[in-house]
Design goal:
The chain is mainly beta and 508 residues long.
Length: 508
């Protein structure tokens, strides 16, 4: 069979879309749309917004395909994606955000119900789309410094002048109500605010991307799915000035009215450097967050590894959460779960009350950290059914827990430099199995409890140098059973402090 030269050139263009030549032109049946064929210039100074948008629109008009950004530096304002379009940023290519605020016009995504919905557009923006992707081995640079400076000026402004930023700061990627979304391979730098913000989207894949934002960049979260379903985030490297991956579902009454949870989320095989939290839920979780698994995560230098946060007034439920197989090093608070994210006054239980339940944390190795864990439920709404297993921690301060019902600790070793390795208060319905400290402090108990009830402690060991294994305080404490433990290395198996009732502890 013989092929004409024109047929051979067409086949070459189909299988080698990266060529910066007329062979890659989107003519005839070719699905590839090279932005340079629409007037884009990769010199880093020529504004290419119009050319790139023409390529996107042309691609969509033919039924979809790939918009190709070749090697070079392409300066751009907001680009609006279309359905069935993949924006491919090739090796050696940089899509660089303009420093001109006018190149990111405000728009209304139509998400909020009662409050003003206007916000600034982002470098890559989309709403009500399906089958869209941002891929490649190139770079998206948000050029965030000008936006950070403006934000800080607005925040500290005392001269009575008008604000610089009226509709917030751009994301690098911001999609609303989209289905079948893929973000793959790209490196993202210097986001003006949250880096990848996905809102009300279904069927999301974020795979193999890198996010690097400087520590001083305010609110430069990494990947923030908000009110999204069926989310897979994997093989990512994230180093940010705020939380690395954060699951959200709306704030306070607005989130409760929208009532669209973030659910069915798998996060795996990621490395987190710096950032306020590695895998975070909240604090805006008023529409609920559920069915989440985070596994095979390395955290080095983040403020927290596990961070679940809310406060009175949010409402919403966080449930069915699993964190598994984390390596945690030089992290300030490896496990931090709190219903006191902001200072609030007590109030009756209502739709404004946040609920945390059915959370499991397992197979953590924690080193060189100030704390092991700090966990705080509300007195009026304790955290319910929290299970922590197979953890080893060498930290300054140990495991601190307050207001939990149904706490289970199993095979947990904590060696604390100061204070009790385990300090638990205002909890009930607990099981402690095989908890230990192999480097005890003679003047501190291994386990300190205050105002706890219905506790079963089994299979624990003490090690040379242990003073008291259990110290119990609180007049409401009672029904604590020690059974099947080897506490022979302890000076005292348990002691009752001050107001602890006699007979509160039974040993078998």
């Amino acid at each position: 069979m013989k092929f004409s030269m024109s047929v051979l050139m067409l086949l070459f263009a189909l299988f080698y879309p990266g060529l910066n030549s007329t062979a890659a032109r989107a003519t005839g049946p070719s699905p590839f749309f090279n932005v340079m064929d629409y007037g884009a210039v990769g010199d880093g100074t020529t504004l290419c917004t119009e050319a790139i948008q023409k390529a996107v629109n042309g691609c969509a008009a033919t039924g979809g395909g790939k918009v190709y950004i070749p090697a070079g530096k392409f300066l751009s304002g907001a680009i609006f994606l279309k359905s069935n379009v993949t924006l491919n940023v090739s090796e050696g290519a940089t899509l660089l955000a303009s420093k001109d605020f006018n190149h990111f016009p405000p728009f209304k995504p139509g998400w909020r119900i009662r409050s003003d919905d206007t916000r600034v557009s982002s470098l890559i923006t989309g709403h009500d789309l399906e089958n869209v992707a941002v891929t490649g081995r190139g770079t998206l640079d948000g050029n965030g410094r000008v936006w950070w400076d403006a934000f800080n000026k607005d925040k500290n402004r005392k001269d009575g002048r008008a604000r610089i930023l009226n509709y917030g700061r751009p994301r690098v990627i911001n999609l609303y109500r989209c289905r079948d979304v893929k973000i793959e391979g790209v490196k993202i730098l210097n986001s003006p605010s949250w880096t990848v913000h996905l809102v009300g989207c279904d069927n999301l894949v974020v795979d193999g991307i890198s996010i690097v934002n400087p520590e001083e960049g305010p609110n430069t979260d990494g990947v923030n799915p908000e009110s999204c379903r069926n989310v897979r985030i994997s093989n990512c490297f994230i180093d940010t000035g705020d939380d690395c991956i954060t699951l959200k579902s709306g704030e306070d009454e607005e989130g409760r009215l929208k009532a669209r949870p973030t659910e069915n989320v798998a996060i795996t095989n990621c490395v987190m450097y710096k950032g306020h939290g590695a895998v975070v839920i909240g604090s805006e979780m008023s529409g609920c967050v559920r069915n989440v698994v985070a596994s095979n995560i390395v955290c080095v230098g983040t403020d927290r590894a596990v961070r679940i946060k809310s406060t009175r007034g949010r409402g919403g439920v966080v449930e069915n959460i699993r964190y598994n197989n984390f390596i945690v090093e030089n992290v300030r608070e490896p496990i931090y779960i709190t219903s006191f994210y902001t200072k609030t006054d007590p109030e009756p239980v209502s739709e404004r009350t946040p609920i945390f339940r059915d959370i499991a944390i397992s197979h953590f190795t924690i080193k060189n950290s100030p704390y092991t864990a700090r966990i705080y439920g509300l007195p009026e709404m304790p955290i319910r059914r929290l299970r922590i297993t197979d953890v080893t921690a060498s930290t300054d301060v140990g495991f601190i827990c307050d207001n939990v019902e149904g706490l289970e600790l199993q095979n947990v070793e904590v060696n604390a430099g100061k204070g009790p390795p385990f300090d638990i208060s205002n909890c009930k319905d607990m099981e402690l199995r095989a908890v230990k400290s192999t480097k005890p402090q003679a003047d501190k108990p291994v386990v300190r409890m205050e105002n706890v009830r219905d506790v079963f402690i089994q299979g624990c060991r003490t090690f040379p140098g242990t003073g008291n294994f259990l110290e119990l305080a609180g007049k409401s404490s009672g029904n604590i059973l020690l059974a099947g433990n080897d506490l022979s290395a302890a000076k005292n198996h348990f002691i009752l402090k001050d107001d602890a009732p006699k007979g509160a502890v039974e040993e078998k």
